[in-house]
UniProtKB/TrEMBL annotation:
It comes from the Bacteria. This is Uncharacterized protein. The chain crosses the membrane at residues 35-52, 73-91, 143-162, 198-218, 238-257. The keyword Transmembrane helix applies. Keywords: Membrane, Transmembrane, Transmembrane helix. It comes from Litorivita pollutaquae.
Amino acid sequence: MLARTFGAFMRAVLVAFLIATPALLLPGVVADTSQIVMLIAIFAGLLTYIEYFSQYPSIVEFRFAPPFNRLRFVALFFTVFLLTVICRGLTDPTNFTHFVTSLGAILGNAIDFPYSPVRLVVLTLPADASHELVATVRTAAGIAYLVSLIAMFCFVTMVRIFGWPARGGVFNVWVNLPLFDPTAGGDVLHRLKRDASLNIVLGFLLPFFIPAVIKAAADVIDPISMQNPQTLIWTISAWAFLPASMIMRGIAMSRIADMIEEKRRRTYAEANHDALQTA
């Protein structure tokens, strides 16, 4: 009980700190914006505490299959933190902000080729956008894309080399996939593989699809203004993190399907062996 309470509290603090990071580190944030961000951070922290304090699953997947959620949180935190450092370097440059900005610029320029995700993000900017804003968006997109690729590589390594989640003990589908109903109809194995493929395909398409939707919506509603540092940080973070998270979820569900299939194969083999012995 005490360990669960402390773990839920620490997770809530970390989630709240993640949301408040841009407002805490960026200079010149107005008081009204800071208050709104703090309210959102407290609300998100409270939801996180309730979710992890409860013994029963609700919405968070893979709660008892670490380090899946920890890896996603670390990836999102580093994305938000590094983009905040880049934006802070525009007004208060330091050696660290210069290093992160230079790294992001190298990555952004390397990935900024025709029809690439970074090029599509840059094309969402208005035609009269300044050169500095274009360079900042390209740099932020490059560093965010790098973090998402590292997160996916780390998760694939855990699955393929370290045998996630089997090495953590017995995997309970109901607890770790609360939004997946095994009794909804059809073979569970087929549905897991279908959902895994769908998540992976959508994860690969979203970096291209999101900028296209933003660009198309700009003709109907007011476009998102990247001039605001916090808007830039959260927009680029969502653009990079959501596809990576979906791909990781697809890989995880595919791994669970493989485990179920292997379990079935061993069960059928043992049943056939017993039937042959009794014949």
